[in-house]
């Protein structure tokens, strides 16, 4: 989220902009609930305990737990209690778990009363309406309202706290159908209101919630506003269990009785429609204006693990008009005139007869007439940053895949699937003049019959325009970007970068799921260093990485990892050697020409053999392979025809991995203040308490929420949540050069 917080908005402007008259059915803002009783309730939140210590009167601020209880009492007076309830949730973790992420849990959560039976008695972000994060007054400032300073403060504790409440904003956006989400950040006797969407977060200036009515007004307006204004995407609705369409969907998709059923509407940009004309039902005016309904359950793929970005999710759905099972992709596309919507890209690819790509049946912006279906964070005039606008977008695809490439059954299938994706990539470049530019494990799919498809073409770009910058950030998924693109001084995205990304997908999967000699610790370190590490240079507002990835490539590190001798190992090492040639010393072209002249009298086959013996010429041959995907395809064919596939090399393994704490994935440079990051610390422990050796609050240890699947069980949940949020921003950052 570095650089994606927009600050400086006064709370009154915030309320009028996002919860103004148009947020209510009657077009009128409800009267403020602010009165002396409410004011006194908010004043009580931050009242400490006073006692004599010697001859001095000492006041101790309340703990976060005590503040949370008092705040819940105050907020309850400012909400529509008939329809909403505010729950103090600081003692338990969210029931929703994000893969490879620490557990999360907010200090307070607002719920709709109607969700009580569905959500159960534990915090459940699937039903969160709004959440609150509470910090004591001595907590480091996170933002600065001084216009002479950067809004995002860059002390390590500030970054940690900001990452923490960013991590808590992810689950509601990930597990609900939402256009935006509101949170409240309390620090001592001040508060900030925050509105999150897929472009970033708008943050108010700090205000004293016990002296000014903005916090009370926020909750009153919020609980009286329309679902759309509160951030709900009303184009996707959960059906009751007795609804006839829910009953039919459950049969068609063979779902369990407790799985939720959603109606999801998809609009169609007529110019992008690629559905088979012999089977497509002609849209009536109703379906054209209100979208066509598909029915399914929770997503089979959920890549919305970042608060910002495209937030791609894929659903297996039933189309009642065609009585077919299809795939529905829900995402937030970048709003740029130079970036085609993905449906239009598929139309180009299909016109060029590119194979091994999904068949697009329907695609369009979600409810184009609704302003909530576009991000708002990029608009405030007070922002000095340029943020990318996003538009909610859905695509329906014919193929329902069993998963992405990580779901391969054996290494022969792995090679076959990656070969199919390479064919799609190569044909798109040659026939349609398009470069994919986001090759990743998540974008290579496996169909039910084991065929590979290359999907997610929304960041593709015409080959003729590769040297032109469209956006100021990188394009791709962090782990699989080429080493060149991760450097501080990076080139424009090229076909060489995409082909190197294919290698990184191949390597990343092989290290985790095929037999090798790396210990769990060594494997965890290899994956962390080569694929996850990022550096934030705060002094220059840069994010970069790739040093270890580059070193491992140049040293041909996979030779030493102990893959089973086989055609599979030879293929992987050949790919590594070819991609590494990009970073070897440049061959002397004069020497190459002299060699050509020297062996010119030999027959072609003998000439090539003689030339290949020279190091300079070897490097050039490998670099030439990176001008097209054809060599990689041919090399896959050669490997699959080989008989050298012993059972250990062919089998899929689930290698044990001891992962590093996510806090080590993102490094901030230069350090701007001493930090407590990395120290074992309970969620309620302040930096001052740590330094003094105390880790308790009010005589009792504060909660320590731990995800047992990630590293040391004593590592604190909140520190790791903030680190994970920072990591996922690096991982999920889809950007352009």
UniProtKB/TrEMBL annotation:
Residues 709-725 have a biased composition (Polar residues). Residues 300-600 form the Protein kinase domain. GO terms for molecular function: ATP binding; protein kinase activity. Residues 675-699 have a biased composition (Low complexity). InterPro entries: Kinase-like_dom_sf, Pkinase_fungal, Prot_kinase_dom, Tyr_kinase_AS. Pfam families: Pkinase_fungal. It comes from the Eukaryota. This is Protein kinase domain-containing protein. It comes from Dendrothele bispora (strain CBS 962.96). The lineage of its organism: Eukaryota, Fungi, Dikarya, Basidiomycota, Agaricomycotina.
